[in-house]
Amino acid sequence: MNHIKTEVHNSPNVNGTIDVKERIKKALFQPKGNNIIPPIYLWIGLCALTVFTLTPFIYLVLSSVTMKSELINGVIFTKNPTFENYINIFKGGGGSGFVKAIKNSVYVSVLTTFFSLGIGVFAAYALARIKFPFRMTSLFCILAMQLLPSISIVVPFYMMMRDGIQIKLPFTDLILYHSPPLLDTIWALILAYTTFSLPFVIWLLAGYFQTIPKELEEAAFIDGCSRFTSIIKVILPIAAPGIAATALFTFLGSWDEFMFANAFTQTYESKTLPVVIREFMGKHSIDWGFMTAGGIIASLPPLIISILLYRYIIGGMVAGSIKE
Amino acid sequence: MFSNPLHKQKRISSRAFLNRQRKDYILALFFLLPTFYVLFKTYIFPIYQSFIWSFFKYNLMENTDTSFVGIRNYSDILQSTEFWVSMKRTIYFTGVSVFLELIFGFFCALLLNEIFKGRIIFRVIIIIPWALLTLVNGLLWKYIYQPGYGAFTQLLRFLHIIDPNSNPVWLSNSDNIINFVILSDVWKCTPFITLILLAGMQSISGNLYEAAMIDGAGFWAKIRLITIPQLLPSIIIAIVLRTMGAFKVYDILTVFTGDPTTSVSYLTFNNAFRYFYLGNASAMAWISTLFMLLLIIIYIRILKRNTE
C-alpha cells in the first residue's frame, strides 16, 4: 500500500492536463484501499445488481395498487393508485379465509420455532459441550437427515396424520396416548415442520455453542452451577444472537413451506398463506392486482423481519459456513 | 502409617471426576432423548415405512387390498417415459439454475464485500427477493410472463427485440416453462448464495490481497489465486444446499403449469395425493432420495480431492 502511495506522490507533473487525466483514470480504475474492484466497475456492477433485484419487486408493488382494468391493458405506472385490491382481499367469505390463513401461518411458524428450539437447544448443547460415547456418530446422523429430500417422507407422514399419532410405552404395545386424526389441523404442519427444522436447528446451534469459550462455563461450575443452570445463565445469554438467527431461519422456513401444507390441509381451518395464495390463481385467474396484493401481504412478515434483523441473518450464515 | 494426604486428595478428585463423567453421560442422554424420540417417530420410522410400502401395491382410493409386488413399482417407474422426462427436466433445472446462481452470487458477493459508502443499503436490497414467499415469487413471474400485458413481453417490445405487434405465449410448452422457471429461481435464490459467499469472504484476510497486489497481481489473478481457493468451503456448502433445494422444486412449478412431468417432486406428489398410489409414490420418492445421496457423495469426493 505505502509503496504505491509514494509512487503517486512522486509522479512528475509534466503537464497539467495529463495530470488531471491521470487522476481521473486513477480515481476510476484504481481500487481504493483494500478493495480489489476498480470503482467504475464496482458502481456499474452495483447499479446492475440493484436494477435486476428491484425491478421485479417494484413491478409487484406497482401492480398491487393498480386496478385490473388497467393492468390488462398493460399499464405499468398507474396514474390513479388505489388500495382497493388490498381492501378486497379482506372482504367477504374469501376475506375471512385469508385472515384465517394469516392466523394459521403465524401459529404454525411460531409454534414450530418454539418446539424445534425448545428441543434442539438441549440436544445441541449435549453435542457441542458434553463428551460422551457416540457423540460424533449422533451429530453425523442428525446432519445426514438434513440432506434427504422432504418428498421421501411426505407419504408416510400423511398416513400417520390420517390415523392420528400413537405414543407407546417403549418396547411394549401399551398405548399411552392416541391423538385424534391430525389431517387438516395445524398440528400436522407443526409436527412436520418441527421434524424438518430440528436437524437444521441442532446443526446451527451446536456451531454457536462450540464458539463459546470453555473457561466461561468452567468458572460457572466452580461457582457451584450445575450443567442445567450454566446453560440458562451462561450459554443461552451468550449465544442469544445465534439463537435469534436460528429462530429466524426456522420461522422463515415454516412460513414459506408449501408442499406439506398443500398435502395436509383441506379447509380454511388449517390452510396456510402459501396454500391460499395458490388458490387465488384458480379463482381470480386474471385479476393480477388482487393476487399481487395478496402476495405482498403474505410476504410482508418475512420481508420486514429479514430487513430489520438483517444482522442476525448474516450472523447465522457466518456460523453455518464456519461449521464445516 | 505414611498415608499421604495429597495422594488421598487426588484419589477423591479422580473419583469425583468419574462421578462427574457418569453424570455427564446421563445428562447428555437426557438432553438428546427428546430429539431422538421426535426424529425417530417422525423421520426414521416414516422413511422405513415408505421403504416397505415401495414394495407393495398400495392404492388408497381403490379400496383393494395391499399386496406385495416385489420390485414391480421400481421397474414400472424406471420403464415409464413420464418418470425419465421429469427426471431429465429436474436435472436440467437443478444444473442450470445452481450454476447461474453460483456465478451471479459469486460476483454479487464480490461487489458487496468491497468497502464503499452505503454498502449496508445494497446488502439489504439483495435480501428482498430471498424474503419473498416462494409461491409469491412464482406468482410474480407468471404475471411477468403473461402474453400481451405481461412485463416481459412489454419490455421486449420496448427494446424492439420482438415485433411490437407480435404476442408470443411464453409458457406454452413444458420445456420452455423450465427455462422461464430457471430465470425466476435465479432471481430469488441468487441472494441466498450471495449471503453464504459473503459470509465466507469476510473471513479472508486482507493481507492476502495486499501481498498479491505488491506482487503485481491483477483482478482476475487475485480472484483465481486467493478468493476462490479460500472460499471453497463456502462454495461447496452453497452448492450442496442449493442443489438440494433446487432438486425438490415444486412450489413454483404448480403455479406455472399443471404438467407434473416438469419435476420429479411434482410427479411424486401427484402420484401420492392426486391418485393416491402410495406404493408407487414411495418407490419414486426413494429413487430421488438415492439419486440425491449419490449426488452428495460425488460432491464430497470432489471436495476431498480439492482440499488434498
From TrEMBL, chain A:
UniProt xrefs under CDD domains: TM_PBP2 (cd06261)
Coiled coil residues, start to end: none
GO biological process: transmembrane transport
Alphabetized SUPFAM superfamilies for the sequence: MetI-like
Cellular localisation: Cell membrane
Similarity section: Belongs to the binding-protein-dependent transport system permease family.
InterPro entries for the chain: BP-dep_ABC_trans_perm, MetI-like, MetI-like_sf
Taxonomy, superkingdom: Bacteria
Gene3D superfamilies: MetI-like (1.10.3720.10)
Lineage, broadest ranks: Bacteria, Bacillati, Bacillota, Bacilli, Bacillales
The ABC transmembrane type-1 domain, residue ranges: 102-309
Name of the protein this chain belongs to: Carbohydrate ABC transporter membrane protein 2 (CUT1 family)
UniProt-listed PROSITE patterns: ABC_TM1
Gene Ontology CC entries for this record: plasma membrane
TrEMBL record, chain B:
Alphabetical GO biological process terms: transmembrane transport
Organism for this UniProt entry: Scopulibacillus darangshiensis
Domain ABC transmembrane type-1: residue ranges: 87-299
UniProt cross-references to CDD domains, sorted A to Z: TM_PBP2
Record keyword Mitochondrion present: no
Leader sequence segment: none
GO-annotated cellular components: plasma membrane
Record membrane topology: Multi-pass membrane protein
The protein's name: Carbohydrate ABC transporter membrane protein 1 (CUT1 family)
